[in-house]
Amino acid sequence: MKFLVDAQLPKRLASQLNSAGHDAIHTLDLPMKNRTPDATINQISLAEQRAVVTKDADFRDSHLIKNKPYKLLLVSTGNISNNDLLRIFTQNLDRIVEAFESSSYIELDRHHLTIHQ
């Protein structure tokens, strides 16, 4: 699966997704790095069929109203250590990938994976 990890999340998350066999990039890999506008992130997501992984609720609104980005994983963990965040992703990655087969919007918090239809 292809992912685009947004600026509020650690680059290590993209590395972890790549290590798990996925194709993940971080906004730091883009020409404008973490200053990449949301509209550009949406364009890349659509063009490359990448799921955007973000904490930014603006992407939820854009996805619900305009179907942009292509797919959305909204991280709703609040303040959390990077190690705890990576652990939560490791524990849920198979379920996330499976959920994206039938849904385009998923929300991950500390205890739940919510699949929105």
Q: Describe the biggest sheet?
A: 6 strands, mixed
**Residue share in helices?**
40-55%
Number of domains: 1
Strand content: 15-25%
What's the SSE pattern?
Answer: EHEHEHEHEE
* Count of beta strands: 6
Q: State the end-to-end distance.
A: 19 Å
Give the uncertain stretches in residue-range form.
none
Looking at the structure, the CATH topology is: Rossmann fold
Helical run tally: 4
Given helix and strand content, the structural type is alpha/beta
Overall radius of gyration: 13 Å
Q: Supply the CATH architecture.
A: 3-Layer(aba) Sandwich
| Side-by-side strand order of the widest sheet | 2-1-3-4-5-6
What does the average pLDDT come to?
A: 97
CATH class: Alpha Beta
The shape is: globular
Task: Describe the protein.
The protein has one domain (about 1-115): Rossmann fold (3-Layer(aba) Sandwich), CATH 3.40.50. About 40% of the residues lie in helices and about 20% in strands. The longest helix has 18 residues, at about 80-100. The chain is built from four helices and six strands, in the order βαβαβαβαββ. It has a six-stranded mixed sheet with strand order 2-1-3-4-5-6, with helices on both faces. The radius of gyration is 13 Å and the shape is globular. With about 120 residues, the chain is an alpha/beta fold. The protein has helices at about 10-20, 40-50, 55-65, 80-100, and strands at about 1-5, 25, 50-55, 70-75, 105-110, 115.
